[in-house]
Amino acid sequence: MKKWFVMTLIVALFVVAACGNGNKGGNTGTNTPSNPATNAPTNNAGGEDDEELAPEPGAKLLVWESKEERPFVEAIAKEFTEKYGVEIKFEELGAGDQVNKLISDGPAGLGADVVLFPHDNLGKAVSAGLVLPNDYFGEESSSENSELAVNAVSYDGVLYGYPRSVETYALFYNKALIPEAPKTFEEIVEFAKTFNEPKSNKYALMWEVGNFYFNYPFISTGGYVYGDNGQNKDDIGLNNEGAVAGMEFYGSLKNILPMNSGDITYDIKKGLFTGGTLALDINGPWTIADYRNEGIDFGVAPLPSINGKPASSFSGIKAWYVNSFSDYPNAARLFARFASTKEAQLKDFEITGALPANKEAAADSSVQSNEIVKGFLQQFEQSTPMPSIPEMGNVWSPIAAAFSDVWNSGKGAKEALDNAVQQIKDANNGAKAAQ
Predict the structure, then answer these.
(1) Which of the ends of the chain has fewer CB neighbours closer than 10 A, N or C?
(2) C-alpha to C-alpha distances, 42 to 21, 115, 158, 332, 384, nearest whole angstrom
(3) Same domain? 347 vs 288
(4) Dihedral sign, Cα of residue 187, residue 189, residue 193, residue 195
(5) What's the pLDDT score for residue 149?
């Protein structure tokens, strides 16, 4: 079946007319979006007599990725170009921003051919018809990657993503400033009393205080986003008793970090940590390379407990996706596969520290022998996958505003959370999730 899959549009149309269902992927190389209802992956790639998928003549690809991943993307793109002769152009765009940009740029033919975003955006992307199923390489992606990763990048039973990495965040600690990682937030508060010197930009702990992705641990000690493992939009646990208690504790931490939430950014934290004036940083594996390259002797440990309870972090699966509107869907499929193999994931781990989704890559000695990785894997075991339903898009702004009100304005935790939940309910039951 694969040889029909790679023919040109005209030949493919004749094949469809003569043979009925001769085009495996449901996409003939046009920029027409695939229909998830009719183009579920057949996952029958790999037969001995099948011909290899080939890029369209003259194919050129645009790839979106974040600045932290630029070194890996440029390295893997070079290898891909050498093998297939397809030019790759890279544009820097944060993973969390890609679906919204694709909504406007995709239909206009301006979007990237291959995109990468966390799995919580998948429902929104599929509902908007933005991405093609992972059909041609579905069998390989499903068998080679962890079940958690495969499930996360599937929607309504259809595999869309090409898993590349699993991620969560944990606690970085500068061993020169604090030899052992604290086990509780109460320990951090005590440490800050003797360590902090705000006038010298010297702080015990920082995290992106205004970002709900990093603030979820304070909700997790009794609260949750959506019920039924993140699938029930009508069951919101962001303002229950446990969530309110966690938010109150969050607000109290301004005593050891007297800065406005908007002033605490990735770059600010990086500068202080590498400069030796920040002892603890809650961050993700994408930070490993930056800190390692600066020669910092650091460790990574699970998040400290909050109010005596384990702190769960948000976890996500990042995967490549093929733009439904791409003029070169075959070349895009090839790149998504090429950049997500075991070898590619190990290269990404080597360059940026991204944790592999591929089972063999994760079991590789280079990964297992790394003490830094062990800290993330321990945290991953107590993490919570972000909900992937489209209504997750209605959560971020209201809950971020609630955290901001508590941190910057001293607003009561319950009032702030009640207000956020009402906004989320209104969005879920009125105007659909932002598309």
Answers:
(1) C
(2) 12, 22, 10, 18, 30
(3) no
(4) positive
(5) 87
